[in-house]
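--- STAGE predict ---
source: upstream dedup step, 1 unique chain passed
mode: sequence only
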Amino acid sequence: MAPTKRILCVGLCNLDIIQVCDAFPEEDSDQRSLQSRWQRGGNASNNCTVLALLGADAELLATFADSDHFRFAAERDLERRGIATGNCVRHEGCEIPLSTVWLSAETGSRTIVHSNPNLPELTVGDFGGCDLSVYSWVHFEGRRSASEIAKMIASITEWNERSEDEKKIVISVDLEKPRDSNLLLVPNVDVIFLGKDFARFRGFNSAQEAVHGFRKEFPGSYIIICPWGSSGIAALDANGQHLSCGVYPPETVRDTLGAGDTFCAGCIFQLSRGSSLQA
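--- STAGE serialize ---
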C-alpha cells in the first residue's frame, strides 16, 4: 500500500458555534461566556483536519450547503488546510447543519445540540463520483444513512476483489451513535472504531468487554478499537490478540471537543503508514 495515496473521510461537515463557560449554564439563566467562536466541525471534517496536520493527503466527501456563510466558515478553511473537497456535493436552498457547543472551563466537558433542517445525506451515487484508484484508505462516519453507506462499502469491496494487493483499499468505520443501523456497516470492513456510547447501547460495560463481546457477536478478521474515556483503550487485532492502553491526561484540559475524531484520525494515520496496532 503506497503511503503517498490519499485518505478519504466520508461523513459530515457542519458549522460549530462554541461558547466557553465557567461551568455548564443552569437552565433559565443569563450569563456571559469566557469566549466564543465559530468554526468548521463534523466528525469526518475533523478527521481530515487531523490527518492533514499529520502530513497525510486527506480528502473530505460530504454534502455542502450552497451558501456564503458555509463557504466562508467551512470551505475556505478546508482549502487553507490543503484538504481536497472536489467530490463534495453542493445543494442549493438548504440550510447549514449547525452544532451549538457549550464547553465547561471547570470540567472540560462539552455539550452539543445539533441541527440539520434539510441538507441531504450522501448517497451511493454521490460516492460513485470518486475515483477509487487514488485512495489507500476510506474512512466512514457512521450516520443515519447507514443503508447508503453500506452500499458505498460494498462498492469498495467489489473494487478490492478486482484489484491487486497493492491497490486494495483499507475500509474503516466509526460507530459512535447508539443506533442499531450502525450494524449494517460491520460486514467487509478492516477497522472498526467502537464508540463508548454505541458499546453501552449494545450492552457492554467496559472497553475490554466491548471488543471481545462485539468480535464474538460479529466474527471476522478486522481490527476493533474501543476508546473508553479516562478508563483507557482496548483493542483486538485481526488475529484476535488483545491490546490495551491507559490514558495520559495533560495537566490542563483545554476542552474535549473533537477528542474522539482526533483519536480516530491518529490511529488511521499510523496504521495507513504500516504501523502495527501495538505501535
